[in-house]
Design brief:
Largest sheet: none
Helix content: 55-70%
Radius of gyration: 19 Å
Number of helices: 13
Number of strands: 0
Number of domains: 2
Length: 247
């Protein structure tokens, strides 16, 4: 129960950014199972305007069917909603993660080989992200699915989603018995692409601890330190945050 509670807390983004970077005390979370979009029977009403409004119809339907323990269909509904609003972290990604953890606790099955082969690809970054999230929903303990989701979110410009899933991956890797150097490097690059240089620097620091003799990582650490200084300088210049935003 403590583990599940910790993961749900992480899913809700309780850690502030300082805590994520400075304490380097990260944990995990995840997601599970779904079906075919072309078999969905539920469709949103026609008078809904914004993508988020349309997505929320799916999310609400997902919550209702989840209450009947129809977890797989609920996951389908969440993913259909996220197709409409890919960056809906609070409304879509987080509840889906919580649903996945609950489903896993109820003995939900992991993705089959056929599902893995089918879902580990996609024509667009959005499709790749949703496919990875589908697999992660079915096997929330398998970090590579979350990493695939992160890569696709960054590639597709889903910054809120990318930042959120990156934090979860960071938590998971730090909590692992044997943290992965490759995962820290992925996090470093992902955070840097998002302009979150404080977290990129933290990930790079973790990577250098695992491979202190790596000169390339040492150079990256210096470069990211400089990037962070420049970024902070833009916000601190003349104490005018609004001017920095305009620039």
């Amino acid at each position: 129960f403590k583990k599940l509670s910790a993961k749900r807390t992480a899913a809700r983004g309780k850690d502030n950014e300082e805590g994520v970077v400075e304490s380097e005390d990260y944990g995990l979370l995840a997601v599970e199972e779904a079906g075919e979009a072309n078999q969905l029977k539920f469709m949103p009403e026609k008078n809904i305007n914004s993508p988020l409004d349309k997505a929320r119809v799916f999310f609400e339907r997902a919550r209702k069917v989840a209450e009947t323990n129809n977890f797989d269909y609920a996951i389908d509904m969440y993913l259909e909603g996220l197709r409409c609003a890919p960056d809906a972290v609070e409304d879509g990604h987080i509840p889906l993660c919580e649903l996945a953890l609950h489903r896993r606790g109820k003995g939900g099955k992991k993705p089959s080989m056929v599902e893995r082969v089918k879902r580990l690809r996609g024509k667009t970054a959005l499709e790749q992200m949703l496919n990875a999230e589908y697999l992660f929903a079915k096997d929330p303990d398998h970090l590579p699915y979350a990493e695939a989701m992160l890569k696709a979110a960054v590639a597709g410009g889903c910054k809120k989603t990318a930042s959120w899933i990156a934090n979860l991956v960071f938590q998971t890797n730090n909590a692992a018995e044997k943290p992965s150097l490759r995962t820290y490097v992925l996090l470093k690059d992902s955070y840097a692409a998002l302009g979150e240089f404080d977290k990129a620097l933290a990930a790079c620091r973790c990577a250098t601890k695992l491979k202190p003799e790596d000169g390339e990582l040492a150079d990256e650490f210096k470069r990211l330190s400089a990037e962070l200084t420049v970024a902070r300088g833009k916000y601190d210049r003349d104490g005018d945050f609004r001017q920095s935003i305009k620039d």
